[in-house]
Structures are given as C-alpha cells and as structure tokens.
Design the sequence.
C-alpha cells in the first residue's frame, strides 16, 4: 500500500499558486538530456527486509577502496584518517549540533569554525577564510560569482586543467545567471597560453594546481596578467594535502582560493559529504559567500566568538545576499580541523612529502613498463599515463586482477579524444607491495 499525502486537487492548487500548468514546467531549466524518458525499472514496493537483501547483493558487487591496492584520485583521495577524528566528531555535542541560527549561544561551534578558518587561511596563504562550503566544485562556482561582483564584469576564463566536474558546475551556474564562460581545451601537459586570452572584458581566470592531470602550475605570471587587466585570479585545488608542501596560492598572487578539503579528516564516503574551502583577501571580505566566525570580548572582558559576517538570504535582504549557500559543512569542517590539529605544521609537511615520494616511486616503476608513458614534467601525488590501450577497458581488466588503477580521462571528458589517458594517484596509504601489484596488473592487462 503506497502513501500519497496529496490529492490531485491539492497538486493542481499548488501548481496554480506558483503559476505553472504541470509538473514538467518545474524542470524547464534542466537540460532535456538529463531527464528520464520513462520511470526507473524498479518494483512499486518491497518490504524492508527484501530491500536490504537486494542492496546487500548489489553492494557485494563493489570492490571497496580498503580491500585492494587503490590508486584512484581525480578529486577524491584515500588518506589515512586517525581513529581519534571519528571518535571526537561523534561526541553528541558535535554530532547533533547544526549550523548556529542563534550563533552567540553556540560558543563551541563558533570556536571550532574560527579555528578552521584560521587553518584554511594559513594553508592557502590568504588573509581570510569562510566557515566552509559544500564542496570544492560549488566553492569554485561561488568564487566566479564573487569575482563578477567585484569586477563588474561577467566573463570567466577556465583553464583546460580545471577538473571537469568543477568546470561543469561553473558553467551550469553561469548559464542560469546569463554569464559568459570561456573554457580552454583539455591541457594535458600544462602548456596552455592563458595570458594571451586575458583582456579588459575578463572578470576572472580559474586555474587549478595541481591540475586535473596532476601538473603543478606556477600562477605568478597569470596573476600579474590578471591584475594588469583588472581581472582576478581564482586558484583551485582538489588535493588539500598538497598545500603542506607546495607554494601557497596566496604567495603566487591568487585573489580567491577555492578547493576541496576532503583529503584531511574525511574519508571517501561514497563521494560525500565533503567540505569546500574558500579563502580570499581582506579587501574582499564583504563579497565573500557563506559565513565568517570572529573573535571578540564580551561585556565582562572574556574572550568570545560571534558570527561576524553572514551574507546569505536567510540573514540579509535577498538583493544584498552574496550567496544562497544554505549551510556550512560543519561536521566535515570539524573533522578537517581536528585532523590538521593532530598533524600540526611539521606533520602535514611530512605527510605531503610522503605522498609525493610514493607517487614518484610509482611513476618511476611505471615508466619502465612497455607501452606506458608518464606525461607529467612535475606532479605532487597524482600524474597522467598514456597507455597503448583504451584506458577505461584497461581499468576494468586491472580491477579484475585486484587493483583499482585510477580514473580514465574518458570517463570525465568523454568526447575529448583522450581515451588512452589514465590519471593515477598514490598517497601515503600505498605500500611497496601495492605498487608492485599495480605494475604486475598493468602488464597483465596490457
């Protein structure tokens, strides 16, 4: 028996109230290719026990990341998260608290958000950071919208090394806002010429480092070209651990930094929830999306924390809001902050060095495999292989041999003619045995 809370008359009344004739009109802005042409092939109902059995059988077909040698990255990375992180965030005062609607009575929440912001600002080399965002892709889109507000221009230039998902989110947001987006072709070797495309019509240039293909980018000259033309440089990252070793985006002249914090404190989690990091210059404080927690003193002179800035629609008139981000990823931000605190500055640097060393060892081993070439001149813990095979097919063959080998570029860029490219990540969790298994599986699959 199915539960239908609304009658047909209820639905018609609701549709009439918002001024549409049918349900299909509610999806008018969604691309037709994303809409189902017919209902999913699912039974109308099952008991709880039957559903559990079905999904147990489905899940048994997966190869979990912790069961086999794992070299998948491309925006989500397998790192060791200390057990103390999960233990602490599951304390009831953390796990059950939500975003502070009456902020000043939530001193504990505001304090850890303040500490989180401090850590993000230090990592990125920027002056201020907000209290987190949903994930790296939406943080990047918000950075582009912020740049438009600051420059009074509506054109974004995206690097060909930007993660395809991030580029898709920027384009979706921009399309709905009527803004222009110029996307450079996929830049496998980081040889693109962005500087020649920057002029006085460009609001911002979005560049990722390490980029989607693993290349390290020196942003200094791009930042200088942006500033000569009144544009802003948005630096993006998907691997937060890289900030423990590489020159910070702020030191290279970035105006806004956006990225993904999943690598620190947060497991893969089937793709989420994750935590978006966002930092910028103090001059741009009032155009920063989301929330900022600040430190002050109360009437008795005691240190206390406040919600200094909250620029979303629920807190300010809609025409003054800088964002419709509706929450911060509080628990994920707390996990990030706890893990980073446990590591400390020296620990983060050691972790980053270990990541790079493991990736360099794997790249050296793979460079000796026939019909395989490492394409990167530089990388952190991720690089791109060119193989004499279809990379997607190769990954399936290696999975059958018990190794999760990486992400075929064709999976994220299906029509780019890059079917022979494989993005491989190696973090601190990979052992010598894992690397040997990768090489053996690759040789066997080829």
Sequence:
């Amino acid at each position: 028996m199915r539960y239908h809370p609304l009658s047909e008359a209820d639905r018609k009344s609701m549709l009439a109230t918002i001024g549409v004739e049918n349900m299909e009109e509610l999806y008018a802005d969604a691309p037709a290719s994303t809409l189902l042409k017919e209902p999913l092939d699912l039974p109308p109902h099952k008991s709880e026990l039957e559903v559990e059995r079905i999904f147990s059988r489905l899940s048994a077909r997966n190869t979990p990341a912790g069961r086999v040698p794992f070299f998948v990255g491309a925006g989500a990375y397998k790192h060791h998260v200390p057990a103390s992180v999960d233990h602490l965030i599951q304390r009831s005062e953390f796990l059950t608290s939500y975003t502070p609607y009456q902020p000043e009575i939530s001193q504990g929440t505001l304090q850890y958000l303040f500490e989180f912001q401090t850590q993000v600002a230090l990592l990125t080399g920027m002056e201020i950071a907000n209290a987190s965002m949903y994930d790296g892709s939406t943080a990047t889109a918000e950075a582009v919208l912020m740049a438009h507000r600051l420059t009074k221009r509506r054109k974004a230039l995206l690097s060909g090394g930007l993660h395809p998902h991030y580029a898709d989110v920027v384009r979706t947001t921009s399309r709905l806002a009527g803004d222009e987006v110029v996307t450079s072709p996929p830049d496998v070797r980081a040889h693109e010429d962005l500087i020649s495309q920057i002029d006085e019509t460009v609001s911002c240039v979005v560049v990722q480092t390490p980029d989607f293909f693993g290349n390290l980018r020196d942003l200094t000259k791009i930042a200088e070209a942006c500033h000569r033309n009144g544009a802003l440089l948005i630096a993006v990252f998907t691997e937060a651990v890289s900030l423990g070793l590489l020159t910070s985006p702020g030191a290279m002249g970035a105006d806004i930094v956006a990225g993904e914090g999943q690598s620190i404190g947060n497991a893969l989690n089937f793709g989420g929830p994750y935590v978006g990091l966002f930092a910028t210059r103090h001059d741009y404080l009032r155009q920063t999306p989301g929330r900022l927690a600040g430190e002050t003193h109360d009437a008795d002179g005691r240190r206390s924390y406040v919600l200094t800035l909250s620029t979303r629609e629920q807190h300010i008139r809609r025409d003054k809001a800088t964002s419709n981000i509706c929450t911060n990823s509080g628990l994920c931000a707390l996990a990030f902050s706890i893990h980073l605190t446990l590591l400390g500055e020296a620990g983060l640097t050691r972790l980053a060095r270990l990541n790079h060393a493991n990736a360099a060892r794997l790249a050296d081993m793979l460079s000796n495999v026939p019909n395989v070439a490492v394409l990167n001149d530089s990388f952190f813990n991720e690089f791109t292989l060119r193989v004499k095979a279809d990379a997607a097919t190769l990954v399936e063959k290696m999975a059958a041999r018990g190794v999760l080998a990486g992400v075929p570029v064709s999976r994220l860029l299906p029509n780019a003619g890059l079917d022979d490219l494989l993005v491989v990540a190696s973090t601190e969790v990979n052992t010598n045995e894992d690397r040997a298994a990768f090489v053996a599986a690759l040789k066997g699959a080829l």
